[in-house]
Amino acid sequence: MLSALVGACVAMPLATPGAQPDFGTNVYIFSPSMPQSAIQATVDSIATQQVSNQFGTQRYALLFEPGTYGSSTNPLNFQIGYYTEVAGLGQSPNDVVINGSIYVHNQCLGLNNTNCIALVNFWRSLSNLTINVTTPGFGCHNGEFWAVSQAAPMRRVHVNGFTTLMDYCTGPSYASGGFIADSEFDGSTIINGSQQQWIVRNSKLDGWTNGVWNQVFSGVVGAPAQCFPGHKPCGGPYTTLPTSPVTREAPYLYIDSNGNYNVFVPSVQLNSSGTTWANGPTPGTSIPIQNFFIASPANSGADITAALASGKNLILTPGVYLLDQTIEVTHPDTVVLGLGFPTLVPQNGIVAMRSVAGSQGVMISGILFDAGPTTSPTLLQIGTGQAGKKNDASDPAVLSDVFFRIGGAAAGSATNSLVVNASDVILDDIWAWRADHGNGVGWTSNTADTGVIVNGDNVTAYGLFVEHYQKYEVLWNGNGGTTVFFQNEMPYDPPSQAAWMEAPGVNGWAAFKVADNVSSFSGYGMGSYSFFNQGVNIFAANAFEVPATLPPGSLRDLLTIFLSTAGSGGILNVVDNTGGSSTIANPDKPVTVVSFP
Q1: CB neighbourhood size of 35 (10 A)
Q2: Distance (Å, rounded) from C-alpha 563 to C-alpha 530?
Q3: What Å distances lie between residue 386 and 152, 374, 455, CA to CA?
Q4: C-alpha–C-alpha distance, residues 360 and 380, integer Å
Q5: Which residues are catalytic?
Q6: What is the pLDDT of residues 164-174, one digit of tens each?
Q7: At what angle do helices 2-9 and 36-50 cross, to 10 degrees?
Q8: String of DSSP letters for 255-279
Q9: Binning pLDDT at 50, 70 and 90, where does residue 137 land?
Q10: For 475, which DSSP code?
């Protein structure tokens, strides 16, 4: 059915200004002039294929030209499955209006619709449009349901009406985190419900119902007041920063008033709150589509690198790219934009992508890096780390919605997933995941030491999700760094305590290590959880390790959790031998440290 509908939704491109570029057959571009029945049939067919397609190779982008879709009497309602991007093509989120809903529900994994959860609703996105909810209220599946976990960002979305982050209609709806940025919600309090952790950045809320373990708000108008670890009457647990210290929103594709395709590059914002579009157009610059090399999986790493070396920016269209040569980003201010979750898989142990000539202003967005069958030293490297080389803080490099996977789809390994060697980089929604389920999963199969290594100074991270790596999950070596929200699960599968020791006499590995020579670092809303499932007692001495010389209060709102009575062992201290232990004696109950040192 999908192939039959392609011709109805994607015109043949012409290589002239104003014509639709050739994004390939898996990018569907809809216009308000199309019959709604045809749009509905297309999006429903893709959802039917993708909702359960957790480790498949299919990838899609569903793009909506400016205009209005659906009505109060004939709404456009559809579901987003795996590896599906839904985005508006306006310059403002208000340029594309959906009357209806674009939703994510639980997956029911057992017989007779049992075991209905959102814990594995990964790898999908929604951005740059307005949703006028046509089914208000608390009825089952009324409203805007966004029951997701990691790697499912919502950006530049304006929702008018009821919104929930849990699907309360098909079971307990356990869900494990999410990311919202540059978005506005009017007309309804957002139901957080059973979402265990979440970060909202630079947005506007009409209300927020509750927290579970770790809800963080940074630069959010209408955010709940600071309340950690949470108690009556303030609710919580909430970590609330009135402004975000430095941000730069993700680049996005749009069509201008003359029908030309461009990519918009937002400007850096300092000490900001609310959306970038609340009082007019988002500040920034536009790059014509003619300045981009539009790649497909048929292109080699050499093809793509040659285009980048010639001064082109890069759009990666949907698909799986088997790379036999590293993609080298060779010019500052280069934009690398993924459509429909393009997935880069390095072959023969190479680095998948590397910024080699400096990272000044480089923007990388919407890409999944998948470890290949031969161990790579790193999947993505930003900057070369030349001694004394600094970037201009007014033009920072940004990684937005960049995700990493070690195993799961297929056997793969990499020593590190992301290495940041440049200064003043912004990490904005990163999920680095050593798979705990899927294909090629095991202590000696999908091997990976560390998810994220930060060597540059003044690096800022919002929404840092790093899970299951076999040594430090995050190693922070740079000065002046900031992390706003960190979510971690330690590896499930150490076969013995002896196999998982940071040093003689130090059990396990800290989830987040700030190097001993670091003199300044700030962390807000940081959690680490344990679930050791090999049937033996495994312990981690600390979830967090930082220098004792950090200024007082450098870390705020830390927590650990023992996840299940079926597990064993646990985390003995929250940070540097401080804080209580999380073990079977207190399952599913956060152990907290409000301020450290």
Answers
A1: 9
A2: 6
A3: 34, 28, 11
A4: 16
A5: 489
A6: 999 988 766 78
A7: 140
A8: E-TTS-EEEEEEPEEEEE-S-TTTT
A9: low
A10: E
